[in-house]
Model the fold of this input.
Amino acid sequence: GIQVEQSPPDLILQEGANSTLRCNFSDSVNNLQWFHQNPWGQLINLFYIPSGTKQNGRLSATTVATERYSLLYISSSQTTDSGVYFCAVERGGTYKYIFGTGTRLKVLA
Amino acid sequence: EAQVTQNPRYLITVTGKKLTVTCSQNMNHEYMSWYRQDPGLGLRQIYYSMNVEVTDKGDVPEGYKVSRKEKRNFPLILESPSPNQTSLYFCASSSPTGGRYTFGSGTRLTVV
Done:
């Protein structure tokens, strides 16, 4: 089956710093999403981005489907950005999203 | 407010005692799915449903049942829970199928 790898696995930032999280996948996909799991365990959808670039405030994401990767950019990080970031991919017709193992981010005040 | 509601949030039960975790969404989404999250294993899909009366197995369906009698509800049933089903469970919905997910707040289940 399709493999989803995220890097780095762990990241510690000082408040105000920028970061880039990467998601690589081993086969072509139809859909891709990014999620943030906050320290209370809630999963928040950040982006639905099968291709192209989207921005939402301090966050932006780019998916290059032909090269099988997606990037999540966090600018001017805040302590509330702490948590785990997951990407998930869906192969066409399978109706199954496969999740990566996540990047654990800690932002220090 | 558009949301997916799971109940209960926390549950401790004993081996073999049937239980149901409820999931309800108010967005008229066709697609609903259950995941479990375990340390080191990430999120894995248990079952999904593409519409009323249409359900299918995910990657880890053993020991679970689901039903989709109404569009808004997708309960997860553990007929005879075992300790290896101790986990954090999430329900999600989307429209269309394969589209943007909305997750419930999660149910932390402990089976002793």
Remarks:
- The mean pLDDT of chain A is 94.
- The CA atoms of residues 33 and 48 of chain A lie 4 Å apart.
- The two ends of chain A are 41 Å apart (CA to CA).
- Chain A touches chain B at residues 30-31, 33, 35, 41-45, 48, 86, 88, 90, 95-97, 99-102 (CB under 8 Å).
